[in-house]
């Protein structure tokens, strides 16, 4: 009999398939009042962490073995920023699984898709191209916007990505833009023609407050309440759960996806920030002015795993404060799931 496909994700972290501890290893199951007390304490901690921001905080965590879910503002819409790239990756892997694409296929670096930073310089080279696998690495590990928009175009555009997510039964998450146009909206500009760099520079010259907002890392409150390119923490949690359970991709694609995410280079002070050294984490960050996000899967010492999503928006206290909120929430969830392993299946939330 073959192993469940969800177990293949363990290989993505370079882990051996050891049997999970039985209930007896942890003593008798907690009494109902103790369980309720543990849940209440976790949710109170989430609420306390939220006070570190002058904006809005959303947190959702799930035990991937029992399905137990705890959340704070779990049904509130937040700008995904670069966290939307996990949905882009899922759509690309679905094309690979369908035989319409290969990891070693080369995609042209169309100059029209270049934005700023990262590998933007490569797009001016005649005939420049990169493999799908390398573009996925750049997108998920370095959050490269240029690589992302090449993949968004190959994925069939934002609507195709949203359709892929909806087909998994995930609601409350929508992709409406590639990264360049998401950034245009975040900046509050409406370009007619020209390159991204030309349009962004012109907007900054015309409105010096854009540069001030960047320097001070202040939110664009109008952008933060737009419905486009948003997700609830619970919807993002549902998407990560579908990935981890092998319901979205083949076993090989699931393994490659989590292997890439396990080497994420951004947001080292976020989900990873307060976890014990050596903890296996696969995650993807998202950052914009006043926005700080991280979404991922964490492995506990006994082999069990949990998913965590933390979104922060409308925040003017800066990235250090946002990173701390994400790190604190992730550590609280780690301790909760680690020290109370025999828990009933259920859901709880505040807000």
UniProtKB/TrEMBL annotation:
Belongs to the class-A beta-lactamase family. PANTHER family: BETA-LACTAMASE, BETA-LACTAMASE-TYPE TRANSPEPTIDASE FOLD CONTAINING PROTEIN. NCBIfam families: bla_class_A (NF033103). Residues 1-25 form the signal peptide. Its EC number is 3.5.2.6. This is beta-lactamase. GO terms for molecular function: beta-lactamase activity. Keywords: Hydrolase, Signal. It catalyses: a beta-lactam + H2O = a substituted beta-amino acid. It comes from Sphingobium rhizovicinum. The gene is bla. Residues 58-312 form the Beta-lactamase class A catalytic domain.
């Amino acid at each position: 009999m073959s192993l469940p496909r969800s177990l293949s994700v363990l290989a993505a972290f370079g882990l051996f398939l050891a049997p999970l501890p039985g209930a007896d290893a942890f003593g008798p199951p907690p009494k109902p009042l103790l369980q309720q007390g543990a849940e209440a304490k976790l949710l109170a901690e989430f609420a306390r962490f939220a006070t570190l921001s002058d904006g809005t905080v959303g947190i959702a965590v799930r035990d991937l073995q029992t399905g137990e879910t705890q959340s704070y503002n779990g049904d509130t819409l937040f700008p995904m920023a670069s966290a939307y790239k996990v949905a882009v990756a899922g759509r690309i892997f679905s094309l690979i699984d369908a035989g319409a694409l290969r990891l070693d296929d080369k995609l042209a670096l169309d100059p029209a898709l270049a934005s700023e930073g990262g590998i933007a310089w490569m797009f001016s080279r005649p005939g420049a191209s990169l493999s799908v696998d390398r573009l996925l690495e750049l997108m998920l590990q370095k959050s490269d916007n240029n690589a992302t928009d090449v993949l968004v175009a190959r994925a069939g555009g934002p609507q195709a990505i949203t359709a892929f997510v909806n087909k998994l039964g995930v609601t409350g998450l929508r992709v409406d833009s590639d990264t360049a146009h998401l950034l245009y909206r975040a900046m509050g500009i409406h370009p007619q023609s020209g390159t991204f760099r030309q349009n962004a520079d012109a907007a900054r010259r015309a409105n010096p407050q854009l540069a001030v907002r960047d320097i001070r890392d202040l939110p664009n409150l109008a952008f933060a309440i737009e419905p486009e390119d948003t997700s609830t923490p619970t919807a993002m949690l549902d998407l990560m759960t579908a990935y981890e359970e092998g319901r979205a991709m083949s076993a090989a694609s699931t393994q490659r996806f989590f292997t890439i995410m396990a080497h994420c280079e951004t947001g080292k002070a976020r989900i990873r920030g307060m976890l014990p050294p050596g903890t296996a984490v696969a995650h993807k960050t998202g950052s914009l002015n006043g926005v700080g996000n991280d979404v991922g899967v964490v492995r506990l010492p006994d082999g069990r795993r949990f998913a965590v999503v933390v979104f922060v928006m409308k925040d003017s206290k800066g990235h250090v404060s946002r990173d701390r909120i994400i790190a604190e929430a992730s550590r609280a969830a780690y301790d909760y799931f680690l020290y109370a392993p025999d828990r009933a299946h259920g859901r709880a939330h505040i807000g």
